[in-house]
């Protein structure tokens, strides 16, 4: 009797593609990825690594396990709220819902009543003006650097941008503010010194070649000791008399004062002190998606909106939707982490420590993202052996701890309480693999 070659029993590609579960995955992952998985599974069966009758189930399981992106979700146990390497701000549930709603066709530039084209971002503009009544108008672009480039290009052109030497900062990834502004064609006119710049220094620099005055918050460092700086109110008096626009780059995204961060500038105060334009970030402290928020006088905002560069740096529909939801909510996971109660953090940390036989130590969190440098956020951390850090990062879910002074520290400030059990499971798995 002739024995049937087992390879003949391997399901054909068209049969596997026709499976209902595989069809659903084709919609999620795309045809190319699904076909590649089918071929790989069939090849395993041909090599004898998989029985032919298990091929359909293996294909379904392999497809279900595939992610649609290479980016992995991470539980942030560092205590750094706006963590640049982790994508800065985690979005609020409402902002996530808004992203999903905006992922298809939406009326981003359409008046559904008349069927005619409408202005982009009208609802977001209304939300921002409601949250910051001191602003006459608002414009949103794709990030803070783009907002600064647009502002200096539209207002200064090839003229001079007056700025203190103490504010020529370097931002993330080695990008330097002087290089950023110079790339627009404007000329930097530095005044004062690194540690002391007086109003008279600005006054001496103003002239026919002045395009705008720029004041930049030293958001990622502090200068202490023998220092001096001109206030926005003083600069407003000086620049307004010459009809020269005054720009305030906050570096972060507070729309109103926050008592937890008393030295961090906010848009409402900067506008009240006389800034014509205020530049803020959508993700830093505000807790929304990455975006450059420009608030200020209607006349100046209109100049920026009409500049050709505004088209190149405009925000997409997903950013507009998520930022609108964040602003309307008036809070975010970032806000919650900044205002987390120390006593509650200690209770959660102690619960985790007791479950794995660890100890709890005092630990200061940080704002991060170039905001409020040196400002501690008092809290607590679970102390584990330093060797637990690597398996925690590689685990599922991935957990990023702080490795400090020979220990692996888990600060729960930035972890939602609903994720405490997931964190516990990850810690147990990491410790179980320890020698």
Structural class: alpha/beta
- Main sheet: strand order: 4-10-9-8-7-5-6
Task: Note the main sheet.
Answer: 7 strands, mixed
Shape: globular
Instruction: Round the Cα radius of gyration to an integer and report it.
Output: 27 Å
On the 0 to 100 scale, the average pLDDT is 93
Residue fraction in strands: 15-25%
Distance between the ends = 55 Å
Low-confidence stretches: none
User: How many β-strand stretches?
Assistant: 15
Instruction: Summarize the amount of helix as a percent range.
Output: 25-40%
How many alpha or pi helices?
18
What's the short version?
This protein is an alpha/beta fold and 435 residues long. The chain is 39% helix and 16% strand.
Fold and architecture overview:
This protein is α/β, with parallel strands linked by helices and 435 residues long. The protein contains 18 helices and 15 strands. The protein has helices at 13-17, 20-29, 31-46, 55-65, 93-101, 122-131, 144-156, 177-182, 199-205, 232-241, 267-272, 298-306, 309-312, 317-329, 333-338, 342-356, 389-394, 420-432; strands spanning 74-76, 110-111, 116-117, 137-141, 160-164, 187-191, 210-216, 246-249, 277-281, 292-296, 359-365, 377-385, 398-400, 402-404, 407-411. The protein has a 7-stranded mixed β-sheet with strand order 4-10-9-8-7-5-6, sandwiched between helices. Strands 11-12-15-14 form a 4-stranded antiparallel β-sheet, with helices on one face. A two-stranded parallel ribbon has the order 1-13.
């Amino acid at each position: 009797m002739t024995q049937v070659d087992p390879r003949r029993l391997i399901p054909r590609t068209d049969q596997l593609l026709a499976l209902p579960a595989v069809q659903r995955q084709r919609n999620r992952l795309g045809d190319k990825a699904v076909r590649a998985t089918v071929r790989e599974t069939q090849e395993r069966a041909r090599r004898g690594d998989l029985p032919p009758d298990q091929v359909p189930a293996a294909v379904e399981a392999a497809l279900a396990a595939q992610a649609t992106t290479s980016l992995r979700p991470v539980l942030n146990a560092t205590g750094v709220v706006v963590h640049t390497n982790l994508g800065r701000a985690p979005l609020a549930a409402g902002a996530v819902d808004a992203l999903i709603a905006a992922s298809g066709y939406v009326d981003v530039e359409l008046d559904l009543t008349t069927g005619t084209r409408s202005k982009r971002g009208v609802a977001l503009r209304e939300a921002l003006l409601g949250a910051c009544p001191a602003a006459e108008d608002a414009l949103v672009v794709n990030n803070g650097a783009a907002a600064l480039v647009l502002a200096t290009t539209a207002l200064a052109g090839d003229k001079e941008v007056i700025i203190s030497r103490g504010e020529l900062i370097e931002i993330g990834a080695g990008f330097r503010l002087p290089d950023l502004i110079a790339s627009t064609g404007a000329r930097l006119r530095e005044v004062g010194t690194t540690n002391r710049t007086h109003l008279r220094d600005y006054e001496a620099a103003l002239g026919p070649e002045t395009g705008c005055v720029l004041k930049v918050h030293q958001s990622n460092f502090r200068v202490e000791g023998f220092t001096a700086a001109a206030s926005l109110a003083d600069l407003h008096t000086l620049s307004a008399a010459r009809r020269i626009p005054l720009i305030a780059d906050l570096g972060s995204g507070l729309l109103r004062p926050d008592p937890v961060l008393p030295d961090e500038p906010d848009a409402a105060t900067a506008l009240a002190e006389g800034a014509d334009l205020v530049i803020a970030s959508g993700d830093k402290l505000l807790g929304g998606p990455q975006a450059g928020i420009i608030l200020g006088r209607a006349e100046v905002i209109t100049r920026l909106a009409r500049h050709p560069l505004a088209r190149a740096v405009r925000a997409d529909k997903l950013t507009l939707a998520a930022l609108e939801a964040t602003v309307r909510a008036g809070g975010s996971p970032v806000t919650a982490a900044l205002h987390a109660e120390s006593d509650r953090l200690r209770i959660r940390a102690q619960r985790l420590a007791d479950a794995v036989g660890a100890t709890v130590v005092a630990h200061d969190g940080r704002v991060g993202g170039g905001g409020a440098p040196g400002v501690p956020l008092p809290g607590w951390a679970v102390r584990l052996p330093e060797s637990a850090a690597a398996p925690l990062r590689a685990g599922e879910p991935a957990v990023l701890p702080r490795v400090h002074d020979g220990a692996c520290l888990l600060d729960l400030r930035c972890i939602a309480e609903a994720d405490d059990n997931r964190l516990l499971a990850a810690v147990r798995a990491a410790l179980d693999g320890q020698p």
